[in-house]
Amino acid sequence: MASQYTPETLQKISELLTKNPEYYTVWNYRRQVLRHEFTQAASSDSAEAAADRITTLIKNDLLFLMPLLRSFPKCYWIWNYRLWLLDEAKRLLPLSISRRIWEEELALVGKMLRLDSRNFHGWGYRRVVVDTLETLTSEEQGESMAQAEFEYAKKMIGTNLSNFSAWHYRTKLIQRLLNEKSATDAERRKMLNDGQTMAPNLSQSERLDYVRQEIEEIQDMLDGAEDCKYIYQALIDCTLLASKIQGTMSSDDQQKVLSWISELKKMDPLRRGRWLDFERSLCA
User: Fold this and answer.
1) What class of enzyme is it (predicted)?
2) Which of 191, 226, 241, 243 could form a disulfide with 249 if both were Cys (CB 3.0 to 4.6 A apart)?
3) CA–CA separation, 84 vs 178, rounded Å?
4) Nearest to 81 by CA among 16, 22, 17, 27
5) Residue 1 — pLDDT band, cuts 50, 70, 90?
6) What is the DSSP letter of 140?
7) Residue 193's pLDDT is what?
């Protein structure tokens, strides 16, 4: 079997995926070839040599993906495989090297969002990268990136006030920032009233109207982006928030959430168990 996992095999896989990156079984085979290469590298005489070889393998494969992402920016399987490579860096490499690779990925996402600042998929991917970077720190360095990301979203909104993707990203950060700072009620009201968010200090009915409007805006984004899992996740988040404001979830909202979960089970097979658990909790 090992004889099948050769550089020549990897080259043939690359040629096939360049023509059509939708072959998810081919991506899985590519993983097997890379795992074999990682195992071979790990058998090196020194840990340093092993880390150097694995780093080269991962970086070369990340580079291979770049032209594919430019040609097929909405192909889920490319993004899924890219995250797998980055997770392998986290699993196999020393902390300092792994963190540098993930920092380079954050810079790449920044460039991508400068080219298309309203790309909802890009904002969702940025959140995944930031969440991971927050775990890739020593105990002495460990700190939240919420404030820095809040300022980043503010800057992006400043360049385009109609950038709803940036507004949504920022809205998700507000509650976390307030909790991290153990904000008082007065401080919470100040943040909601000082123009730093779309939602001022609203009544319950006004708050519900705002969330419903946000849901409509996100649903509009589905047109032409039906394969972007982050849109479905945002729809679920906002619908759960609306239900919390109302104190109950309507049967109509429940059916919508279940339909979105059904899409996520197909689009996000690695987290299928999570979506099944969520589905069961809604139906309980």
Assistant:
1) transferase
2) 243
3) 32
4) 27
5) very low
6) T
7) 56
Helices 120-135, 229-246: crossing angle, 10 deg rounding: 80
Is 7-114+124-131 CATH 3.30.420.10?
no
Domain coordinates in residue numbering, the chain: 7-114+124-131, 144-196, 204-283
For residue range 241-257, list pLDDT tens digits in order.
888 888 888 989 999 99
Q: Where are the alpha helices (DSSP H) in 72-163?
A: 76-92, 95-115, 120-135, 146-159
d(CA 239, CA 247) in angstroms, rounded, equals 12
Between CA 41 and CA 34 the distance in angstroms is 10
Q: Which of 111, 56, 107 is nearest to 85 (CA)?
A: 56
- Nearest CA to 52 out of 12, 83, 94, 23 is that of 94
CA angle (195, 201, 202) in 5-degree steps: 125
Find the farthest-apart pair of alpha carbons in the chain and give their distance in angstroms, rounded: 67
**By three-state DSSP, how is residue 250 classified?**
coil
